[in-house]
Design brief:
Elements (H helix, E strand, L loop, with lengths): L2 H24 L6 H28 L1 H4 L3 H21 L16 H25 L4 H26 L4 H23 L6
Helix pairs in contact: 1-2, 1-5, 1-6, 1-7, 2-5, 2-6, 4-5, 4-7
Amino acid sequence: MGFFELFVLAVGLSMDAFAVSVCKGLSSNRASLSNMGKCGLWFGGFQALMPLLGFFFGRLFAEYIVSVDHWIAFFLLALIGANMLKEAFESGGECECCDKNADYSFKTMLTMAIATSIDALAVGVSLSLAGNVNIWLAILLIGMTTCILSAIGVKIGSVFGNRFEKKAQAAGGIILILMGIKILLEHLGVFPF
């Protein structure tokens, strides 16, 4: 998996954190650098940590699943992507985090960072099964992309409101599904690259 593919994957994974950051920004009249930084560091840090854990967990059990690894990677990415699409198109005007918008406490940020990065744990398992992945580059890209987009999300939320939240979540879901299809087709020999 090359740099561009890892970057696209990073953008897709960061969309949940971006959507939550937009929600956080909704509660602010003005997005402070402090709140932008908190969201960026919390969400970016956990989005980098979880795929690393998933990657090593996947490698630990790789010998038992090597014959079906591409199917597992496809299934995990497609499932995560489909769930993101479902959430994006569900009715309801307010984002799910609106009850905790204004709270940037340790407990709230830890809970939200874990919640938005659970998908990244499964993606880490998928990366371990995809083969030829530089995990250190992957987690650097995932962490930095999420950090930057989360900080921007707080600002966008404070300026534009929640009209970008659902679109971002839908885009992330589509990206993850496409990455899963690509991994599956490569292993089946449809794409030689």
